[in-house]
Design brief:
Number of helices: 5
Helix content: 40-55%
Number of strands: 5
Radius of gyration: 20 Å
Distance between the termini: 56 Å
Largest sheet: 3 strands, mixed
Strand content: 15-25%
Mean pLDDT: 85
Amino acid sequence: MKNNNIKVTKGRLNILQILFNSEDALTVDFIYEQCRKKGLLIDLSTVYRTMDILENKKIVDKFNLGEGKYNYKIRKENHKHRLECSFCHKEVEIDCPMLQIEEIIKNKTGFTLMEHDLKIKGICDECKTSKQNKNE
């Protein structure tokens, strides 16, 4: 936390420990209950503020489950995927979008994804513009 200019408190350390010890994404309510079970006197609003700080510092990922519900998970090293233009074969690297999709799948079906294979092809802006100009 010090490396990210986050003030170290007992509450924040406990919240991080709870997140690190879980393979699953967690709700703020679950994190709050775990803190209380440890005997930590902490407010629910403190957990919300801490999660906002950790998300802003890119320490956790926040997953929108819809209907105002969110889950949080410690950010792990993300692998990348490449987008390839089908015409000029230019490639663009993006962060893997599967973390968010994995959480949606898990919440809707109970499945935990073990692996995925994602190949993305499309058309880049330059080729799209060039193609449109030729058709005009």
